[in-house]
Amino acid sequence: MATNNDKTPRNKKKRVKDDEGRMSLKEHLIEARNRLFKSLIALTLGTVAGFFIYDWLLELIIAPVQAAGGSVNFTAVMSPFDIMIKVALFVGILISSPVWLYQLWAFIVPGLKKNERRLSYSFVAISVPLFIGGVAMAYFVLPFALHFFISLAPENSENLININEYLPFIIRLLLAFGLAMLVPVLMVGLNMVGVLSAKVILKNWRITVFLIAVVAAMAAPGGDAITMFALAGPLFLTFAAATIFCYFNDKKRAKKQAAQDAENERLAKGDSSTIDAPSHIDEPNSQL
Predict the structure, then answer these.
(1) Total tally of structural domains belonging to the chain
(2) Which residue range is the domain that position 61 belongs to?
(3) What is the distance between the alpha carbons of residues 85 and 164, in angstroms, rounded to a whole number?
(4) pLDDT higher for 233 or 101?
């Protein structure tokens, strides 16, 4: 009777990738499903935590309106509950950012080597502070835009802002700033693993500049020029810095590859020109 010595169950065998880490379409879909599931679990846990700081965070979001001379108004019976869910979900996105950022990176660049996995952790370690920093930067820019728009109201009028319109605008603005700050880090990360070259970035720089302007315009409330330039300015600077880094990294990689190719060619020539000398053991002993 034949016995099965394979201790690994058939239904639990890992998917085999080729040398370049490529997978079939079905395996890509399974990979995307698993990583999305992990991200949703982290998002759910972060959202639950968001309910505990809802009151404090809502006051923080409303504070710029009150400082500009306006007030936020709840116009429906279900508005407080709806706003609570949206605020908690926003907190969940922030808290779970280390998880979904890593899952996103691991899905974009699969089949990493050992040294490239360290780069993944470095990517997350840099991306999370930049994402949170972008959200914080948007919050500090927000009062300038609100003060401008509220100051346009007539002197004898009262500016009541609907919370159902104000909160989605705030969340969209904060997340747009945070996600936009991740683009340069993603560029550098893809360049480090050899996926994106500086040549490709420079070739498509017009498209990138246009997309940055579009993102800044969409995030700016009502086309506010102050908020738009406040977002576009850092993005242009970080994009330029990332492009310069990718350029010098490509030169360093090309120089290293050229040196390696020269060394391999030298070794190949040396092996072909070497003639094995006869061993002393094989030489006849003249004394015998």
Answers:
(1) 1
(2) 24-269
(3) 12
(4) 101
